[in-house]
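note to self: the first set is below, dont mix up w the second
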Amino acid sequence: MRFFRPVPKVSLATAADAAALAELYGRAWGQYADRLDPRLLADQAPASEEVEAWFRGGFEVYRATHDGALVGAVRCSFPASTCLVDRLAVDPGHARKGFGQVLAEHAVSRARRAGVTRVWVYLSPKLDDALALFQGLGFHESGGNRAPYWGEKVILMELAL
């Protein structure tokens, strides 16, 4: 019997990880096909060429591995004294093991090290687990809109540092 959650290793991803990350995003977002608009799903599950472009465009992508397997990822960017956390995904085969929490906490820690004053995340309110995760980390809803290009309502959650 295990009493402790497995702990993934979180490290900075590189362009060499692009194909594996794209596959991860496809698996992670594919499980929501019955809940979310296909335009949102298509946007959140990018091709490996798009993921590779992130590394040339100033994004930081962190990958979580456990027992040698890629189990999750998160992307951070730093516009105007803030940190935007997005593209948080956990492989469905490794869900509910705390890997999403570890990645979200890592992103907040990275934001603190960068000296920003706020961390933002956009979420679909249909993603109950993600909403609960970020609320548990102290994020609160600070806005929202209906994104016509996604066909979904999204909310902006914010954490003041």
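second set (the one i keep forgetting abt)
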Amino acid sequence: MTNVTPGTTTGASAARSTSASAASTTDSLNADTTHGVTTVDDSVVAKIAGIAAREVPGVHDLGGGAARAIGALRTRINQADQAQGVSVEVGETQAAVDITVVAEYPIPLHHVADGIRTAVTTAIETLVGLEVTEVNVTITDVNIPSDDDSDSSADAPRVQ
């Protein structure tokens, strides 16, 4: 006599169930297929999110003060960190993203945040195949373009 717990399958029906569940997750890269398993590292998802966020109009930079200072040093030696200011939690079929940004003045901050959410969600769902459950955006600063950068008279002495 075979003991079967309700809700479980055995034999051929278990094989059909397994192949059906594998087929239903083939949109995700973290899927178990008949040819092997593909796993996407969290750092790859974070990098994709960072690249997508940087392309949004009104985003000056990613990360807080210390991360931006280290990022500036890395950029000088051509080792830019595309995932700077991005943290992700990745499950088997879903991802959640937290992004810290510096926005450009005078672009409305809610437009910047909405643009980041849209761009990051689209990039992760398209490139990785994971459902994005949330994109939390923290704006830590606003970059105000300085008049000194474009004014050549700034180098002239104030008194003669």
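remember for set 2: Residues 1-26 have pLDDT under 50 and may be disordered.
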